[in-house]
Structure formats: C-alpha cells, structure tokens
Write a structure and sequence with these properties.
alpha/beta, TIM Barrel, 8-stranded parallel barrel, two-stranded antiparallel sheet, 15 helices, globular
Length: 302
Amino acid sequence: MEQRVLGKTGMRVSVLGFGGSEIGFENAPQADVDRLLGSALDAGLNVVDTAECYINSETLIGNAIGNRRDDYFLFTKCGHGARSGIDLPDFDPDLLRRQIDVSLKNLRTDYVDLWQLHSCDEATLRAGDVIAVLQEAKAAGKARFIGYSGDNEESRYAVECGAFDTLQTSVNIADQRATTYTIPLAQERGMGVIAKRPIANAAWWSGTEPPASEYARQYWDRLQVLKYEFITAQTREEIAGIALRFTLAVPGVGVAIVGTRNPGRWPENAAVASLGGLSPETYHAIRLHWNGAAPADWVTLR
C-alpha cells in the first residue's frame, strides 16, 4: 500500500487508515476485530485511529493488536467526559489527564504516536489549558505528537496557533470546504493532514431513500443538491471508490481514515486505495462541480 509522510511528524503512513468508531458504537465482537485488524496489518495498513469516547473501541483495539505495537502508528483522541463515563465537564484539564491514562491502559501501551483534541471549541483552544495538557503528555513520553481533530473556525485557529503537529478534518465529495479553508495553510506550516469521513459516510448506499442513520443523512441531503452524475451512473461500490480516491487526491492529505466493523470490507477498501488518488482531470472536474453547485453557506459537517 502507498505510504506518505505525515507532515513534520515524519511518520510514513499508509494512505488508508483504520477508524475505530464503528467497532465501538456498533458493539463489534472481539473476534471480528481481531480478524479485521490482524489481516489489515498483514496487508500493509499502519495507522489505527480511535478515541476514548468511542465506547469500548480502545479496549477492542488493544486486545486485538496490543502485542503488535511496533507494526502500526496509534492515534487517539480525548475531550468528552460524559461520553466516556468520566464525571467531569468536556475538556476539563483533569478530565484530559484522566482520559490519557485510561486510554494507555485500554490500548495496552505506554505511549501513542498521536494524541488529538476531539472537536474542541475555539474559545477553549484559545484559553490554552487543554493544549497544555497535551504538551505535558508529550513531554512525559505518553504521546510522540499532538494534534487537533475538528472543523470550521476552530480548526482554522488550531492550525494558526502553531501548537499542533497534525490536523484531522472532514473532507470528501460532499464536504469540500477544508480543501481551501484549512488544508493549504496546514500544508504551509508543515502539519500532517488526516482526512476523516473520506467516503461521506457512504450516504448514497440507501439509494433514493434517505439513510436511516442521522450520521449519514446530512451527507445524503447534500448529495441531492450536488447531483453528481457518477452517483446515478455507477454502482454503490464504484461510487465508494470514486469518493475515496477523490479524498486521497486532495493536495496535502496524508492518510484517509475509514471505519468498518466488517472484516471483509477492509480488503475492498485497500484495493481501492491501492489505485491512488483520482487523476488530476477527474479530481478537478469534481472540484469544479462543487464550486458551481454547493451553496456558499455550506460549512464543514460535524
């Protein structure tokens, strides 16, 4: 699988990374996670991205591949107290310190390669306390690098403030604001860029009816406005391939994070990623269509 250097971190990351939200929120059996991640690492995946608030995702990952710690770069996130079962307000510095230690235990490791603040608002970022906690973790050897995961104005500040090594942000065929708003500036500053939701939550999968999941519904609504020709002309699998390869073609993107709880889905995603990004002509045609069809007030979806 193709690898790219993730900005100033110097990490050579596989262009396709594994996202751990689905295995936690969809209660994946440990045996499925063992098979999924074991086979993915064997096939060349070397990025695993999760968060302390994804229910038991960290524990599932730690149990599955904690004994292969040298085979992959491990990314996680912190910030949400209620969702992770710790009775402290979101982004309270003591919450972050507790989450960091809980995450290390869950993941069966004494460090992670990247610790990210998880959708922290701009005012809290500007206050500086949460950034200081991650810097403490880095100085203590609990994190090699620190990053910000989020979108819109808060992500712009995270890039501009100079405190972070990476930016994780949403970018896909239905969500292209970051291609001009944050990613070029992150590139200029040497930050690694991690693309989340690179296939727009596969919102087209439900066909002509809205998806049942609210998580995908916002993207489905946007696709009804955008009316990409390839959405109606291709199979669902082919659309997924175009969507993923679009995100991989965005200048500056180092790795695209795709989540699944289905062990059979990983080889399909890896086969698409092995083709690389879309051709410049096809990529720019999608960008041109977006510029003509997307309303000016569309911000990045959360």
